[in-house]
Design brief:
- The protein is α+β, with helices and mostly antiparallel strands.
- The protein folds into 2 domains: 124 residues, PurM-like, N-terminal domain (60s Ribosomal Protein L30, Chain: A, 2-Layer Sandwich); 173 residues, Phosphoribosyl-aminoimidazole Synthetase, Chain A, domain 2 (Alpha-Beta Complex), CATH 3.90.650.
- The chain is built from 9 helices and 13 strands.
- The chain has a 7-stranded mixed beta sheet with strand order 8-10-7-11-9-12-13.
- Helix 1 packs parallel to helix 2, helix 1 runs parallel beside helix 5 and helix 3 crosses helix 4.
- The chain is globular.
């Protein structure tokens, strides 16, 4: 980002947020984002059907526009396929993309399809818009704000493990399907985010792609603040808790480090909490107040059972020698 960050005329926000924000004539800004999905890094064809893969590829990019409070409008797709993949599989991917785009009111207006020597690569760029005064950045959190999370965290991580062969005897088939679907076909919180932005309820916002711990850290770094997160307040679904219990792992770790839930993590003044709660309740979406913003010198901490720990962004990281787990 230090090499590429552009401060050209017309760039309101470049690298460092969920989408670039570009100045155009009038009251609205353009939002532009791009993400890539790489076979055996982000997905395998053993765990995703082509349709699910296409749906997810579009959804994760739409979620970036949601994180800024924007409304997605157009998408462009680049796909590179290895030679052994059948045309039917490629068509299935595009069908999944088209369905997610249709649900979001987005038009796929162009792209490119090429061959690859080794893996399947999918890149999706999305262009959206938002009134300039309503764009929500990562950098707006203020000391005293509360930290809010929509929905539940950790479901996608549990779903990935189930798809990868983990067994959880206490889960019903319906619960297994719920967790797997949360990983395979995430639903970006577009309507909720747009409403929060239009009512100017949030001071900062981000989507949960890399895990709650990472997203809190991103907001703190961008806003130059600290935060305290209360472990017992992080919302974890009953199926995810049962899954964690069956495997003897911490459900909290699934929520903090699992990622790919694509919920919204936002900060807001405390007097806005009930308005946010009631507004999103109309969309059948719950919220949890999981912490508070602190001065920068307090750092980011997790409070659990009377103890305090450093909150580290432990989600999936590219170019890191660690994880052998495909997400």
């Amino acid at each position: 980002s230090s090499l590429l960050n552009c401060r050209c005329e017309g760039v309101i926000r470049g690298i460092g947020d969920d989408a670039a924000v570009l100045d155009v004539e009038g009251e609205r800004a353009l939002l532009v984002t791009i993400d890539s999905l790489v076979e055996n890094i982000h997905f395998t064809l053993k765990t995703h059907t082509p349709y699910q893969l296409g749906y997810k590829a579009m959804a994760v990019n739409l979620s970036d526009i949601a994180a800024m409070g924007g409304e997605p409008k157009y998408a462009l797709v680049s796909l590179s396929a290895r030679p052994d993949l059948k045309l039917q599989l490629i068509e299935g991917i595009y069908e999944g993309m088209e369905e997610m785009a249709r649900e979001a009111g987005v038009s796929i207006v162009g792209g490119d399809t090429t061959s690859s020597q080794s893996h399947l690569f999918i890149s999706v760029a999305v262009i959206g818009e938002c009134p300039k005064e309503e764009v929500i950045y990562r950098s707006g959190a203020k000391v005293g704000d509360v930290v809010i999370l929509t929905g539940t965290a950790g479901d996608s991580a549990a779903g990935l493990r189930l798809l990868s062969g983990s067994k959880a005897p206490s889960l019903s088939q319906k619960e297994i399907e719920y967790l797997e679907r949360r990983h395979l076909m995430p639903r970006p919180r577009l309507k909720a985010a747009r409403k929060i932005a239009s009512l100017k309820l949030a001071s900062a916002m981000i989507d949960v792609s890399d895990g709650v711990s990472s997203e809190v850290s991103h907001i703190c770094r961008s806003s130059r603040v600290g935060a305290e997160i209360h472990a017992e307040r992080i919302p974890i679904s009953e199926p995810a808790r049962k899954f964690a219990s069956d495997l003897g792992i911490s459900p909290l770790k699934l929520a903090l480090d699992g990622g790919e839930d694509y919920e919204l993590l936002l900060t807001a003044s405390e007097d806005k909490v009930e308005e946010i709660r009631s507004t999103l309740a109309e969309m059948n979406l719950g919220i949890s107040v999981i912490g508070r913003i602190l001065p920068h010198d307090r750092g980011c901490v997790l409070k659990s059972r009377g103890e305090e720990f450093e909150l580290r962004g432990g989600g999936f990281t590219h170019f890191h020698p660690a994880s052998d787990e495909v997400t």
